[in-house]
Amino acid sequence: MDKDIMKIAVLSGKGGTGKTLLSVNMAVVADKSIYIDCDVEEPNGHLFLKPKNISTEKVTVKIPVVDVELCNGCRKCVEFCKFNALAYIKDRLIIFDNICHSCGGCILVCPEKALTEKEKIIGEVQKGASSNVTVLSGILNIGEASGVPIIDRLLDEEPADESITIIDCPPGSACIVMESIKDADYCILVAEPTLFGAHNLSMVYELVKLFNKPNGVVLNKCEEGKNPSKDFCIKNNIKILGEIPFDIELGTLNSNGQIAARENSKYKDLFSNLLKKAAEEASNETVINP
Ligand code: SF4
Ligand code: SF4
User: Fold this and answer.
1) How far, in Å, CA of 239 to CA of 201, rounded?
2) Nearest 5°: CA angle at 133, between 127 and 136?
3) Closest CA to 32 of 154, 133, 136, 129
4) Which of 12, 118, 176, 208 to pair with 218, CA 20 to 30 A apart?
5) DSSP state letter for 202
6) What's the predicted TM-score (pTM) here?
7) Residue to mutate (ligand 1; options 65, 88, 102; most atoms within 8 A of CB)
8) Ramachandran angles phi, psi of 119, nearest 5°
């Protein structure tokens, strides 16, 4: 990893834990950054960053199309498709575009060469600028099977020199999260101070361990008293990068679509420290595991 170009993924086991709060605030406190919103089913980072000069690029996938003159009804393609995107009903092959995962396998197995491919738009990528932050958002059209092709396109963006990339991952631990963290140098897991929060943290922790990604935790909404997520970190020897307090002013700024680090120097310091800690941890990992 080039020490000047670093990719940090921010994850959480469910929505609403503060993943986007942390991502957008870390993006703005960096000297220069790229913020990538991989939560393609519900992107909301742009609501805070309010990027300007937006350019849009459609994202397409290839789906099969049948030539009814060539199809003999053998059903080999139907048997092959693991996603049940094909059915042979009343002497006709039906293709369910919205659940096709574009693997191309049915085209290969068709003995009559009756299947070919056509392009289908599944969503788009938007790119704009918010002061020092390049903002990339992926938007998956409603009803589409998979956001992975959009995430792949988002992550193709080459970082400029001396910039940091913040990847705001989808919530949970499904395959689109795996796709989002695959090139990350470091993963930050955001957790709430409840038993449910600790359970969600354990899920994403298993995921980053599976991918052998260096990681640390940011504890959000911290108050005096018990914090099961903190207990989980201590028990499992997981690095705690820092804590974001339960803070009405911070919550109000966030719910008004404002970025706290741009509004108040105490929040700028808070998120600068968290980013610095994560960057140091990522650099240390690179030295230990070059
Ligand atoms: S391309 Fe793959 S997922 Fe789509 S219909 Fe063919 S076999 Fe099924
Ligand atoms: S494999 Fe080819 S010939 Fe057989 S049902 Fe499918 S499209 Fe038709």
Assistant:
1) 13
2) 25
3) 133
4) 176
5) H
6) 0.89
7) 102
8) -80, 140
Neighbours of 272 (CB within 10 A): 17
Task: Output the CA 18–ligand 2 centroid distance in Å.
Answer: 49
* pLDDT tens for each residue of 111-121: 999 999 999 99
CATH number of 60-121: 3.30.70.20
Helix orientation angle between 265-288 and 19-29, rounded to the nearest 10 degrees: 90
Ligand 1 pocket by Cβ (under 6 Å): 64, 80-81, 83, 85-86, 100-106
Q: Which ligand is nearest the CA of 71, by number?
A: 2
3-class SS at 62?
A: strand
At the top level of CATH, which class does the domain 6-32+160-288 belong to?
alpha beta
- Calculate how far, in angstroms, residue 281's C-alpha sits from the geometric centre of ligand 1: 42
Sign of CA dihedral 203, 208, 268, 132: negative
Would you say the CATH fold of 60-121 matches that of 6-32+160-288? Answer: no
pLDDT digit string (tens) for 82-134? 999 999 999 999 999 989 999 999 999 999 999 999 999 999 999 999 999 99
C-alpha–C-alpha distance, residues 120 and 182, integer Å? 25
Contact (Cβ atoms closer than 8 angstroms) between residue 63 and residue 155 = no
Task: List the domain boundaries for the chain.
Answer: 6-32+160-288, 60-121
* Number of other CB atoms surrounding residue 14 within 10 Å: 16
